[in-house]
Specification:
Length: about 350
């Protein structure tokens, strides 16, 4: 299962459906016009503008339905599971899932080259948070929901990054294709399986049925984002195996991973008004990531291993208590502040747009 032969092949595959749309848009020279039309499409039931190129209209029409195998009962259970643990999962995504992705050296290169994260990390966090909230909303796939349109736009955004990175002349094919199938599968695991592992680390219990409903929901989302079905397992055993295979193949120290993690920590620290609390951020990352991955990313250490142990025990205790009482730990409040900022600016919500170009050094 998930052999090197299979995963090596997947590193050379992207998403032809979205790639062809992006190619059409950028070769037409009407990027701004296209972006304005896309911005009008927010709710799932909003009409597809007639002025879009035929190939683009076809893309939105053909990718707006859930796959035949999607299970409405499991999707509902997955959404309910997120709703029960939303505070903890949003914290886990920021402190665990995102930096966990940065440990995959080759996959981190595309984020480093595009500069979107290192040059405007907070905005990227808000966009990620917005996407998660929209696909995790209980009405995400209903007519008045936002989930399907968000997925369609993020899929095009990934294709646009591929287009620009390849055009830049700075991409080394030894890394595979930018935003390739294996890397997209790894990211999907980070948002699904790593969220579950994060709950384990925080001492928050759940049933196998709840976990596999949550995995099924992310399998549906991943498939609609253009990930191949054979890279979207949904049992705990299968996702564990795929995560181990990808991490063993790609986790190593890299300039890209270290730089992205440093930018992430700085962004979180900016949300803490009390300077005395800023050291909590790297401490929390080390707790979530574990020593091996945290060291790969050069997350700053506490003064001694003994302090590490005491600190990690305290984090777990505070998070369990906070979850039981409906409150937040200091570290969760940072993520919650980001989510609140996102909700407060909902009137000017970020629209997921294809980048017109790469940012330059």
């Amino acid at each position: 299962m998930f052999s090197d032969t299979l995963l090596n092949q997947k590193r050379l595959l992207t998403d032809p459906t979205a790639d062809s749309v992006v190619k059409t848009v950028f070769e037409s020279g009407n990027y701004q016009f296209f972006s304005q039309l896309m911005a009008q499409m927010q709710k799932n039931n909003q009409a597809i503008p007639d002025d879009l190129p035929e190939s683009v209209k076809t893309y939105f029409q053909e990718t707006q339905t859930l796959p035949d195998w999607a299970n409405p009962k499991l999707i509902k259970q997955g959404h309910d599971f997120f709703a029960r643990h939303a505070q903890s999962i949003t914290s886990i995504l920021g402190y665990y899932a995102l930096p966990y992705c940065y440990a995959a050296a080759n996959g981190a290169e595309v984020l480093w080259l595009s500069q979107k994260i290192r040059s405007n990390t907070t905005q990227r966090l808000l966009e990620t948070g917005q996407f998660v909230l929209e696909v995790m909303a209980k009405n995400a796939f209903e007519p008045q929901g936002l989930g399907i349109r968000s997925i369609q736009k993020v899929r095009l955004m990934h294709a646009a990054v591929r287009f620009h990175v390849l055009k830049s002349g700075r991409w080394d094919i030894i890394w595979g294709q930018p935003v390739n199938q294996e890397d997209m599968a790894g990211t999907n695991l980070a948002f699904s399986f790593i969220s579950l592992k994060g709950l384990d680390k925080l001492g928050i219990s759940y049933t196998r049925e709840e976990a596999e409903a949550f995995l099924h929901l992310w399998k549906v989302i991943g498939y609609m984002l253009g990930i191949d079905l054979d890279l979207l397992p949904e049992t705990l055993k299968e996702v564990y195996i795929l995560d181990k295979r990808i991490s063993s193949r790609h986790f190593r120290k890299s300039e890209a991973g270290i730089g992205l993690t440093k930018a992430l920590i700085t962004s979180f620290e900016d949300f803490i008004p009390n300077p005395a609390l800023k050291p909590l951020i790297p401490g929390y990352l080390r707790f979530m990531l574990g020593k091996e991955v945290a060291d790969l990313l050069e997350v700053p250490q506490l003064a001694s291993p003994l302090l590490d142990g005491l600190w990690f025990g305290a984090i777990k205790a505070f998070n369990v208590a906070g979850n039981s009482l409906g409150g937040f730990s200091d570290t969760q409040q940072v993520i919650h502040a980001l989510v609140l900022q996102l909700q407060q600016q909902n009137a000017q919500r970020t629209d997921f747009q294809m980048p017109e170009r790469l940012n330059q050094n």
